Amino acid sequence: MSVTRTAVPRRLLMCRPAHYEVSYSINPWMHPEKPVDTGLAMLQWERLRRLYESLGHTVEVIDPLPGQPDMVFAANGATVVDGKVLGARFRHVERTAEGPAYLAWFARQGYREILWPEYINEGEGDYLLVGRRILAGTGFRTDPRSHQEAQEFFGLPVTSLTLVDPHYYHLDTALAVLSDTEIMYCPAAFTPGSRAVLREMFPDAILASEEDAAVFGLNAFSDGLNVFLPEVAEGLIAELSARGFNPIGVDLTELLKAGGSVKCCTLELRS
Ligand code: ARG
To answer: Taking the CA atoms of the chain, what radius of gyration do you get in angstroms?
Structure first.
């Protein structure tokens, strides 16, 4: 059976890594003693942005705040569905200033339904929309009580998934949405119960090897046809091609030093 896949143009929010550096460590990938090349990070980021635009996507850009070196990871800035904006409230004090900065951007853009959340949540780092359902991560960053808050706010079913490996501290490091019905994920990143839930909901999902997960192969963005992911995730790239997707390898090695890649840099603006 062959599937015809089509790319749906998206509106994306990104944040230039102008103040990017690794000056603290809030996940196991971050080593402040190792040098980071901010110029190279800018170049790699700029290439990703142009790649999105060349394939028909619209990229909006928010200005990064000085002193917020992680503010390149726009996915963490909010969750936007049906024009409703659930603000992000960060777990670590190093990033707390980002939450209000993103919400101010949404307010300036004219978004009306904006919620400053009661509970900690790190935006699309832990909230991923699959069709009309939300998969929600917890275990390291997002408070599980936020999942109920998100369900009430969006009026969409939210499924809680618990992460167990600190290397995969956000859901979007362990699971990627490919289409309205398809995902890929790394089972080892989840509790046995969450693994069983994923098997139940997505019996045909692509399962990532730990090797591909470790190069952030699951930190991918899909427009329904093109799947943007780290170019070194060879197993996933082969499997995506076999299933009729068009995988596009991206080099974001400088950003990996902060524990982020393609999806982390990309927040989807759903109207
Ligand atoms: N250094 C950042 C942090 O630990 C990386 C965030 C990556 N973003 C993501 N959506 N997974 O918070």
So the answer is: 17
Residues 6+ away with beta carbon under 8 Å from 105: 13, 62, 77
Nearest-atom number in ligand 1 for the CA of 75 is: 10
- The reported pLDDT for the residue numbered 3 is 79
Which residues contact residue 253 at a Cβ distance below 8 angstroms, ignoring those fewer than 6 apart? 44
Helix (H/G/I), strand (E/B), else coil: 76: helix
- Residue 226 belongs to what H/E stretch? strand 226-230
Ordered by where they begin, the domains of the chain are 11-268 (3.75.10.10)
Closest atom of ligand 1 to CA, residue 95 = 12
Q: Where are the alpha helices (DSSP H) in the chain?
A: 38-54, 98-108, 144-154, 192-201, 210-214, 234-242, 253-256
Pull the structure tokens for residue 165: 């490996």
Residues 197 and 161 sit within 8 Å (Cβ to Cβ): yes
170 lines ligand 1 (CB under 6 A): yes
- Ligand 1 in reach of 123 Cβ (< 6 A): no
Asked whether the ipTM of the predicted complex exceeds the cut of 0.90, the reply is yes
265 lines ligand 1 (CB under 6 A): no
What's the count of helices (H) and strands (E) in the chain, helices before strands? Answer: 7, 15
Task: Give the up-direction half-sphere exposure of residue 192: CA atoms within 13 A in the CB hemisphere.
Answer: 0
Tell me the C-alpha distance between 271 and 81, whole Å: 7
- Answer for the pair 146, 117: CB distance below 8 angstroms, yes or no: yes
Question: pLDDT (tens digit, 9 = 90+) per residue, 198-241?
Answer: 999 999 999 999 999 999 999 999 999 999 999 999 999 999 99
How far is residue 142's CA from residue 165's CA, in Å, rounded to a whole number? 14
With residue 135 as reference, give the H or E element that holds it.
strand 133-138
